[in-house]
Amino acid sequence: MTEAAAPGPATLAAATARRRLAARGAALRQSVLPVLGVIAALIAFWYLACIPMNAAQSVLEAARAGAPVTPAEASERRGMSGLALAVQNPAEAAARAYGQERPRLPAPHQIGAEVWAATAQVAPTSPRSLLYHGWVTLSATLLGFAFGAALGVLLAMGIVQFRVMDLSVMLWAIVSQTVPIIAIAPMVIVVLHSVGISGIVPKAAIAAWLSFFPVVVGMVKGLRSPDAAQLDLLKTYGATARQTFLSLRLPGSTPYLFASLKIAVAAALVGTIVAELPTGAQAGFGARLLAGSYYGQTVQIWSALVAAAVLAALLVALVGAAERLVLARMGLRR
Amino acid sequence: MSGAVVEAEGLGLTFATGDGPVHALKDVSLSIGKGEFVSFIGPSGCGKTTFLRCVAGLEAPTSGSLRVNGMSADNARRARAYGYVFQAAGLYPWRTIGGNIALPLEIMKYPAAERQRRVRETLALVDLAGFENKYPWQLSGGMQQRASIARALGFDADLLLMDEPFGALDEIVRDRLNEELLALWARTGKTMLFVTHSIPEAVYLSTRIVVMSPRPGRISDVIESPLPKERPLEIRDSSAFIEIAHRVREGLRAGMEAA
Amino acid sequence: MSGAVVEAEGLGLTFATGDGPVHALKDVSLSIGKGEFVSFIGPSGCGKTTFLRCVAGLEAPTSGSLRVNGMSADNARRARAYGYVFQAAGLYPWRTIGGNIALPLEIMKYPAAERQRRVRETLALVDLAGFENKYPWQLSGGMQQRASIARALGFDADLLLMDEPFGALDEIVRDRLNEELLALWARTGKTMLFVTHSIPEAVYLSTRIVVMSPRPGRISDVIESPLPKERPLEIRDSSAFIEIAHRVREGLRAGMEAA
Amino acid sequence: QDAVTLQLKWVAQAQFAGYYVAQDQGFYEEAGLDVTINPGGPDIAPEQVIAGGGADVIVTWMAAALAARERGVPLVNIAQPFGTGGLQLTCLAETGVETPEDFPGRTLGVWFFGNEYPFYAWMAQLGIDTGGTSDTGVTVLRQAFNVDPLLQGQADCISTMTYNEYGQVLDAGYTEDELVNFNYLDEGIGMLEDGLYVMEEDLEDPAFVDKMSRFVAASMEGWRYAEAHPEEAAQIVIDNDTTGAQTLEHQVYMMTEVAKLTEGSDGSLDPAAYEQTVATLLSAVSEDNPAITEEPEGAYTTAVTDMALGE
Amino acid sequence: MTLVALALALWAGAWALNVRLAAGPDQRRAALLVPALFGLTLLMLWELLVRGLAVPMVILPAPSRIGAAIAANAPILWTDFVQTVLRGALPGYAIGCAAAFAVALLADRVPLLRRGLLPVAGMMAALPVVGVAPILVMWFGFDWQSKAATVAVMVFFPVMVNTVAGLSAAEAMQRDLMRTYGAGYWSALSRLHLPAAMPFVFNGLKIATTLALVGAIVAEFFGSPIRGIGFRISTSVGQLALDMVWAEIAVAALAGSAFYGLIAVTEKRVTFWHPSNRD
Ligand SMILES: Nc1ncnc2c1ncn2[C@@H]1O[C@H](COP(=O)(O)OP(=O)(O)OP(=O)(O)O)[C@@H](O)[C@H]1O
Ligand SMILES: Nc1ncnc2c1ncn2[C@@H]1O[C@H](COP(=O)(O)OP(=O)(O)OP(=O)(O)O)[C@@H](O)[C@H]1O
Ligand SMILES: Cc1ncc(C[n+]2csc(CCO)c2C)c(N)n1
Ligand SMILES: [Mg+2]
Ligand SMILES: [Mg+2]
């Protein structure tokens, strides 16, 4: 490229900006719109599903209010499916599906209102704030994820480098995951508590328990993904195990590592929430879920669920962003 | 015995596959001295690659003995005795072309400045200057192959194992690289094991030509070249050259018919 | 216009890469009639593969027009107008060699007995009889390449696109396959687009030789061959042959120097 | 100030108002105590926590405490703030259950996790099979700690506490006369509910006994205050609810109902009620109901309450 | 304390033995012996530590007591196994995986759907089971149906995400080949995309096996008949019968590992061609 042929810097900048805008527009059409479309379809289906799901209560309320319903007898209605009830009482079922206090399936707007009320309308430090509970859960999740990911990577390295570890650890790592965590969690908490450890650490320990496994599996697969030809090349250089690891296995495993980190961060969140159930329903999304279930507050359960899902999505997106950054640096994104 | 860089005695290798064993090499005996340029030629599937892999310590022979630089092939490998150009380019997709060529240099702990210098030089040698920052998939097949040659030439190995390095190159580039290779060899006194399918190439480059025949892979003929060390491209029109080429062709044909 | 199998007009293709655009093809105009055997020759990286991929509808040109069998390249692809031999073998690792060759036959719904027959025949044609049940990674580089040739020959396409199909083969097998290919072409009247780096091969096979030059890839010369359709291998020693080969070499050299 | 850790059996709610009120009103502080109240949860067994050293004193049901005692956790009742119990079986009248004779063939929701002992004792008394296979038996559903099975039509009867789940059924739109209640107390298999338990070896230390007596006294003061001021007590509970999930309305209801259970008690254990609990448990020992197999010894002490009330 | 010291010595000894075995010539024997020895060491360590430190039984029972509980309660454990694994986990696994596979195919077919569905699916994948299970119990009743539903929901996302990833795993060159044949969708699917996807699919299936059992057990915590692994665990915790709790945990772990092993063996057979399985 000669200087003379190059366009002036101003035009170049303008062209770049235009291109970038166009690219952003394309990205919008490519990624955001389909997501919105799918979400819209889901929500539409959700609203529709509310009618039969909540029909029993709708009809009960209607009957209480003196409206004629079929069948008229409560005992006959028992055991009828929601769909049948909705078909026989379409008007009542549709009209009363979205305003119930304890719906079987809350409508999206009810959840939205609850989430809004619990985030925007209370101080973020109040136990009534979802942000507060989100932070409680998030902090344990991040700590557990950090531990779990580190442990997972270390184990995977050991498994790939040492045959003993491959033979002994892998099997038992699998076994550790088949142990019902919800049964173990309370015991872990009681045991740790009895040796004086409480607070965030027991929760993080359980989060780490769930999150190390996907990392081990993915990372082992990734570290073993280089094919024979690629390994042969390094053998011809007489590369040490360490060098083979650093220059071939590690970069080769990066895509696998990130795929598993995404699963692991979601698993860490689930682990934290599980751990929050027996810790005495004190705080965090787990406590919200539990308390909601004890007091029949379905809307509250769902809003905690939605909040947890959003948090998970954010965490996964964060890992995804890191992935794009790293892979782009490595030239692996085309 | 001393001075023999590669010393094979009754070498054999049998692959066990799902439907029966495949005899890739059988009773191969060969001694290659320091500074020799030995070409291997033979029909596809006759075991040329397998032999080179044995020398490189990448495949374990199932019978016979093999010494490289007086050590076992595996120890020679660990001592970084050789450079290897594989039949397929095998560049690492996460490294740029420059990064791929720097890879062995990094592993052998060449200082950074030296690495840069060598990458630049070998890239120029294979005519890829300017492609340093491209990724492998952005290169044509022949360009990838040249990058892999550059990768093996970048560091100082006394023994070079090259498996059809110029197979995907056009005649002109190939001629140029043949000349370069010969010059390099003359200058450095490296020992060369070179697999090719081109008879003229084999004759032009080699001090000795090993003709192989297939199933099981054996040495069917070994032809010493009387050509001088100094070889301009025009030597290919000389009668001596044509005569050797003819012998190689005959050897190949005989091996084929016997099989 | 009618009867033109491939019709390119001012064809251009630019790849956008991380550090700037790469002009792989520029202003390529070419018309290939039915039954022609056209070879493409040119230095590594000049755009031969890219041009073949455009014809196959695997790459979309960024400028110019291209018709294949009177349709767009994409429609021709859908109409299964051609067979393609890639520069790398690209066999599916989960299928045996036989399974790989049967793949297009299955897709094109050949009856099972017919499939079997054709697999057997084409395997024999490329000298791989007996390897039907082996997996790709159990074959040598040249054997894999032959399997991929067999895969493209197994079904009846009127147009064959071959990208350096014989690059990894020894001279003898190569000669034999050259003869076979020529015989097949003469028998069936297929149209051939053939990329090679070997000048004698191009001259021996082709009715027309397209010489390309690099950066950006352009056609620098088109050479019509006056050789008769009937071509014994010995024709390569004829003066007509040597003369054309010389022209091609000159064309190549001129293209290289201009670039 | 002496530190005391109290492990509750359940989440922070008005069921434990007395302790929260005592804390909030400074009764503990006045008694020279620094009390930490740890709420429980569905899978935290307070008996396990105290055995592991995670608490000094726990709130639990007597059946569970006696069972733990037999399994090597020597718990001792030191006080019994709940004079009577609130556990009942609530049925929908529309299903046609009116008396225990209507049970066979029905699906009954039962709380497990150590709360199943009274139920099995009762069924043994009624002679009803609980295996779920015979027509004359009942199908037992392990009910989560909510009322969904009744509202969703999955059970004919469910376990409720007068002060909590029963209110939830009412909140769901059912009226009192649409519901049929079987109170365990009325059926004669009442078992002592929320009591205070400590480890036996701790009681050997007079300083600990003294600490506990002050704790019990202050707690009972808290209960008295809570009974008198249900609204305020409910608000205190809400303030201590770190989940932020409770509603004041429901906690006021709960406080009012809990008051009915604590009103009669000055904190001391009624030995007759203890005997009845033990007798009921022993009368129905079975595979499903392995609470205790033999008469417990030294499972309660009046020393603490004597001291507390003596002051 | 001596017991603790003994435990540590035992650990060191067994590890040394394992290192020797793994480096030894008989790899087949090592593959069986090493993990067994490792597990045995863990158990011994546990036993000695629990005894040496006099941990109360209600906190952590020793393996010998757990073994005794298993032997004494075999019929109960069998009933629970049938309820949780055969009636809850397996049907749920089958349904969830089949649905995930179908949706993944659909998403792969319709690019718009894929771009829209994947992020949403990622979000749903992170829905905590403990939140979903009570809702599903409310919807599907307390018997095995709700357990199967929970399992189906849990396994759905990992299988789907992996399948979608797998369906795009074929290399550019392999796809180009299909394109040159003008292969139709189903042709390319069955001959290229499915085989190429299998390593990924099995990845998902393997993750799903561990989730399946956990899901079925978790769901039992939110309402169940009076049998099942989860039911027994939570009831036994309440009764402080910790030996029984661990007996059930052992059953769950055994069943889960066997299930995992089954899928892993199938994977080896199906993806024999993959470089990681070749030698
Ligand atoms: N995917 C791609 N991205 C960027 N550049 C590419 C890509 N594919 C090819 N090129 C570039 O296009 C040019 C032509 O490549 P092409 O593969 O057509 O060459 P070729 O003539 O087939 O060479 P060879 O004989 O070495 O195979 C090269 O400079 C190459 O770097
Ligand atoms: N991993 C393997 N498993 C089984 N058989 C193998 C394996 N590698 C090579 N072979 C067989 O060994 C024989 C020799 O192969 P080799 O690659 O050495 O041939 P080659 O002379 O290099 O041929 P080409 O010129 O085609 O590259 C062939 O018949 C091949 O099928
Ligand atoms: C661990 C545990 N869970 C449930 C109960 C039974 N119970 C007692 S009070 C109450 C009210 C809930 O608001 C319930 C369910 C218990 N005693 N312990
Ligand atoms: Mg080879
Ligand atoms: Mg090419």
UniProtKB/TrEMBL annotation, chain A:
Residues 130-323 form the ABC transmembrane type-1 domain. InterPro entries: MetI-like, MetI-like_sf. Its main location: membrane. The chain crosses the membrane at residues 27-49, 135-157, 169-192, 204-223, 256-281, 301-327. It is found in: Cell membrane. Coiled coil: none annotated. GO terms for cellular component: plasma membrane. It is a multi-pass membrane protein. GO terms for biological process: transmembrane transport. Keywords: Cell membrane, Membrane, Transmembrane, Transmembrane helix, Transport. Belongs to the binding-protein-dependent transport system permease family. This is NitT/TauT family transport system permease protein. It comes from Pseudoroseicyclus aestuarii.
Automatic annotation (TrEMBL), chains B, C:
The keyword Hydrolase does not apply. Pfam families: ABC_tran. Keywords: ATP-binding, Nucleotide-binding, Transport. GO terms for molecular function: ATP binding; ATP hydrolysis activity. It comes from the Bacteria. The keyword ATP-binding applies. Residues 6-235 form the ABC transporter domain. Belongs to the ABC transporter superfamily. This is NitT/TauT family transport system ATP-binding protein. It comes from Pseudoroseicyclus aestuarii.
From TrEMBL, chain E:
The chain crosses the membrane at residues 32-50, 90-108, 120-142, 148-170, 200-224, 244-265. GO terms for biological process: transmembrane transport. Keywords: Cell membrane, Membrane, Transmembrane, Transmembrane helix, Transport. SUPFAM superfamilies: MetI-like. It comes from the Bacteria. Coiled coil: none annotated. It is a multi-pass membrane protein. Residues 82-267 form the ABC transmembrane type-1 domain. GO terms for cellular component: plasma membrane. It is found in: Cell membrane. Its main location: membrane. The keyword Transport applies. Belongs to the binding-protein-dependent transport system permease family. PANTHER family: ABC TRANSPORTER PERMEASE PROTEIN HI_0355-RELATED, ALKANE SULFONATE ABC TRANSPORTER-RELATED, MEMBRANE SUBUNIT. This is NitT/TauT family transport system permease protein.
